[in-house]
From TrEMBL:
Record keyword Hydrolase present: yes
GO molecular function, one term: endopeptidase activity
Keywords carried by this UniProt record: Hydrolase, Membrane, Metalloprotease, Protease, Transmembrane, Transmembrane helix
Domain CAAX prenyl protease 2/Lysostaphin resistance protein A-like: from-to ranges: 126-209
Pfam families documented for this protein: Rce1-like
This protein's name: CPBP family intramembrane metalloprotease
Transmembrane annotation, as ranges: 44-63, 75-95, 140-167, 179-195
GO biological process, one term: proteolysis
Length: 232
C-alpha cells in the first residue's frame, strides 16, 4: 500500500502541483536562486528516503529498480554511448560559447537566468548537487519505481505511457511547445528504460544535459566580464 501511495503522489499530486504553480498568476517575489536549489534538493531527498523505505519494506533489489551493474550487453553499450554523447555535448557547448558574438552572449545569459541557470562558480557547485539529485532521483522514481509498480496492473507500455505523461506534466506548463517537448522526451526516456532495463545511461543523459548547459552559462558569464573589461 505504501508503494501505491507513492505512485499516486508521483502520478497525480506532484504533476498537478507543478502544473498549477506554472499556470496560476503569482506576484510574490521568487526566492533567491540558491534557496530554490536547496528547496529542490530537500524535496527530492525526502522523496528518495520514502522510496528507500519502500524498497526495504518490499524487498526491491537494485536490479528491480534498474540499477544492476551494466557490465555487458546492451546496457553497457548504452552507457558508453551516453558518456560519449554527453562529453561531446559539453565540448560542443564550450566551442559554441567561445564563438558567440557579444549580442548573443547577452541574449543567452538573459535566457539562462530566466530558466534558473547558475551565474557564478558558487551557484554552479550547488547546481551540480541539484542536478545529480534530480537526474538520479527522478530516473529512480519515474522510471525504475513507477514501471516496477504499475506494470502488473496496466502492462509495460501502459506504465511507460503513464510515466512519460506524468513526468512531462511535472515540468509544468509554459507554452504548448515546451509542454509537448517535455512529454515526448519523458516518453522516450521511459521507453528507453523499458527496452534496456537499465537506468545508468539515462541518468548520465539526465545529469549531463543540464550540467553542460550550466557550464556553458559560466563560460558565457566569463566572456561577458572579459568583454566589459576590454571595453573599458
Amino acid at each position: 500500500m505504501i508503494a501505491l501511495a507513492l505512485a499516486f503522489y508521483l502520478v497525480f499530486i506532484l504533476p498537478g502541483r507543478h502544473l498549477w504553480r506554472s499556470v496560476r498568476p503569482d506576484d510574490a517575489p521568487k526566492p533567491a536562486l540558491t534557496q530554490r536549489y536547496l528547496l529542490s534538493i530537500r524535496d527530492i531527498g525526502l522523496t528518495l528516503l520514502v522510496l528507500l523505505a519502500i524498497c526495504w519494506w518490499n524487498g526491491y533489489s537494485a536490479a528491480d529498480m534498474g540499477l544492476a551493474a551494466p557490465t555487458s550487453g546492451a546496457p553497457l553499450w548504452y552507457l558508453v554511448a551516453a558518456v560519449v554523447a554527453m562529453t561531446a555535448l559539453l565540448a560542443g557547448s564550450a566551442i559554441q560559447s567561445a564563438r558567440m558574438t557579444p549580442e548573443k552572449v547577452t541574449e543567452a545569459l538573459d535566457k539562462g537566468r530566466d530558466t534558473g541557470m547558475p551565474a557564478d562558480a558558487d551557484e554552479l557547485r550547488l547546481f551540480a548537487i541539484l542536478v545529480l539529485s534530480l537526474g538520479a532521483g527522478w530516473e529512480l522514481l519515474y522510471r525504475g519505481f513507477l514501471l516496477l509498480v504499475l506494470t502488473p496492473y496496466i502492462g509495460t507500455w501502459g506504465a511507460v505511457a503513464v510515466s512519460g505523461l506524468t513526468y512531462g506534466a511535472a515540468h509544468g506548463y509554459k507554452n504548448p511547445r515546451q509542454f509537448t517537448l517535455s512529454v515526448v522526451s519523458a516518453l522516450l526516456f521511459a521507453a528507453g528504460y523499458a527496452l534496456s532495463g537499465s537506468l545508468w545511461w539515462l541518468m548520465v543523459i539526465h545529469i549531463g544535459m543540464p550540467l553542460s548547459g550550466a557550464v556553458s552559462m559560466i563560460q558565457l558569464r566569463r566572456r561577458e566580464l572579459q568583454l566589459a573589461s576590454s571595453a573599458d
